[in-house]
Each structure stands twice: as structure tokens, then as C-alpha cells.
Amino acid sequence: MFGGNDFLPKFYNISHLNVVNTIVATDHLFQNLVRVEENEKDQQTFLNVTFSQESYRELIKLLYCPKTLDSTMLSFEEIRQLTVKAPTAKRSDPPRNYALWMPAAAVLNKLSLNINCLIKYYLSAGQHTAILPNFLQDGCLLKLPTGEIEYNLGSEASVDSESEILIFPPKELAAKLKNCQLKRKKQINKKSGMKRRPEDTPQKGARKKIQQTSTPKKQ
Q1: β-strands 44-51, 34-41 pairing
Q2: φ, ψ for residue 9 (rounded to 5)?
Q3: How confident is the model over 47-92, as pLDDT tens digits?
Q4: Across the strands, what pairs with 45?
């Protein structure tokens, strides 16, 4: 499902750069994903950080939604089902690679606890009296008797069968997707602002005839 380190999860086929670009390009995520408030105590200023679980779920939903669809018109569970199996696929067709499945909402809530700890850890830099966050207590990491650390994502991190996720009838979901299509933007020439004409675009396998001109003879 994801890799990266024990603190900042990286989902399969979704780069950290893609995550950052999506946050910056989406106003409500940029404003609400992380909230920082200043609090004063004993003439010292402390930062209180809140990482929004709701905004985090919305971010992951947007990242997993096909680029041709409007994610705001689909529910979290509908997009999750799309990552498991297309509604146009046959019943006998196998599901997609497990690594491509979107995690359950409860799993994302668990992961958000870890990210919140990570932000607090970063903000403690330069403060020798700062209390470091406990990832095992406040995050979603679990220390095994062998000393190894692993994720503790809860019971919804795995399923016995993909049928537990495929809860919407394929035909109904396919019909809904037709109304969720994003309109394609026509290609515009950036310099002139004019639409690109076919004759201005090089065509594969096409040769353009060059007009022959007479060469003046030397006297």
C-alpha cells in the first residue's frame, strides 16, 4: 500500500512532490490541512498544531481519483471502489494490484496521528526544553517484543475479500461516472492565446512539401 519511512507515509505510485503540488493547488486543503496556533505560557510562546483528519481524507481521495473525474461528485467509498475494480470490468476479472487500492478512511485516520506527531517533532527544533512527541503513544506505531517497529493501522487495514469494498452495483456506478466527467480544455497557444491549428502542429509520418525557388545565376 505504501512505503517511505515510519513517520511520513508514501503511497504506492504517488510521490511526495505530487502530494505537495495537490495541497498547494487546492485552496481548502492548503488552508485547513494543518492549523497552527500560538499560545503563551510563562512568557514563552508555544505553537499548537492540529492536523485535520477530515482534510487528510479529502487529500487522499483527490490523489486516488482518476484525473478525468470530478472528485467532489463522488464519495470516498465510491472512489475507493474504483481503485479496486473498474465498474466496466467483468465479474470474473481479477481486481487491480493490491498496492493500488486506496486505504480505508479508518486507516487514514490512524496515519494522520503519526503525521501530527511528525509536525510537532519538527517544531521542537531549537527548543532544548521542548517535550518530544511519543509516536508509540500518540501516533500509530507499535513496538514488537523483538524491538522492531511496525504500523498499527487497525482491523480495517486488511480485508478477507475485495467484495467487502465493492459495495456499489457496477452498472449504477458506471452510470454515475458519466455525469462526473471533467470537461477537457482545448489546447491554447500560450504565446498568442490562439487555438493551435492542425497545420501548425507536426503530424507523425506526414511530410510537408517545400516550395522550390529559382536560384539567380551568377553574372
Answers
A1: antiparallel
A2: -70, 145
A3: 788 899 999 999 999 999 999 999 999 999 999 999 999 999 998 9
A4: 40
Which region among 10-14, 122-126, 165-169 has the lowest average model confidence (pLDDT)? 122-126
Q: What is the pTM of this model?
A: 0.76
Beta strands in the chain (DSSP E): 2-4, 9-11, 34-41, 44-51, 141-143, 149-151
- pLDDT greater than 50 at residue 3: no
Asked whether the beta carbons of 64 and 100 are under 8 A apart, the reply is: no
Question: Which three cell numbers, joined as nine digits, stand for 20?
Answer: 505537495
Long-range CB pairs of 66-73, under 8 A, 24+ apart, other chains included: 67/182, 68/181, 68/182, 69/177, 69/180, 69/181, 69/182, 70/180, 70/181, 70/182, 73/179, 73/180
DSSP output for 83-127: HH--TTS-TTSPPPPGGGSPPPHHHHHHHHHHHHHHHHHHHTTT-
